[in-house]
Amino acid sequence: MRFLGVGNAISKRLGSSCAVLLQQGKPLLLIDIGPDTLSRFGLALAAQPEAVFITHAHLDHIADLEPWFYQLAFAESKWPRLYVPASLVPILQRRVADFPNWVAEGGRNFWDVFQLIPVSESFWHAGLRFDVFAVRHHAPNAAFGLALPGSFVYSGDTRPIPDQLAAYPRETIFHDVSVRSNPSHTGLADLDNYHAAIRDRLWLYHYGDDDARALAGWRVVNAGTDVPLAAPDPAATSAGMLAWTA
To answer: For a tag on the chain, would you pick the N or C end, based on fewer CB atoms within 10 A?
Structure first.
């Protein structure tokens, strides 16, 4: 997993929190697409995303959908896939896609340039089955985490979620953190409520510009950090599924 940005919504220098799942060095799936994500993606990987999972619809996680639309609308590009939890689709429609006349001369809808794939509990992408689960951020069913069983869990913005993490006993965990606890994010003090087997697998992100000292002693990702991951469970791969059904 490579992080392109690790900052919270008001961070000016750390970049919007987003990460890319890499397979043999090539981008497989981008998680979130906030401000400046497309530029960071291009600089880091000399490419543009072909697939994105959206954790929630706050602008620090979706704002680059607008410039991406214009890149795609005026270029001969194949449609990138947007994997969006089903309850977020109407929110994205209201926040982004309802803008009238996406191009002044008309004839274009926001969704024309994307392959929108609403998802619920899981989805397949590139031969892998990813899990999707609700987290605790602002309102029920308004934010979601992502997991590849056997490999990683990505919390997205959330309060502590011990019940969800209990389903993933060995995966690397990328977890939201705020120095101070608040109603929408996990504070450092909250992490002490996780048992040691979870704390030992945490990598923390979504912090503020001046939080490095407070986070000392924890494993923290920085922009550009690559974290090696274990191979996914066979049941989370199409090859494993074929072997099981044969």
So the answer is: C
| Residues whose CB is less than 8 angstroms from the CB of residue 185 and which lie 6 or more positions away in sequence, other chains included | 8, 137, 157, 158, 159, 176, 177, 178, 206
Tokens of 33: 């697409």
Q: Which two tokens stand for residue 185?
A: 């994010």
Amino acid type, 180 = R
Number of H helices, E strands in the chain: 8, 12
Contacts of 239 (CB under 8 A, 6+ apart): 127
CATH number of the 2-245 domain? 3.60.15.10
150: left (phi over 0), alpha (psi -120 to 50) or beta: left
- pTM confidence score: 0.95
pLDDT digits (tens, 9 = 90+) for 17-53: 999 999 999 999 999 999 999 999 999 999 999 999 9
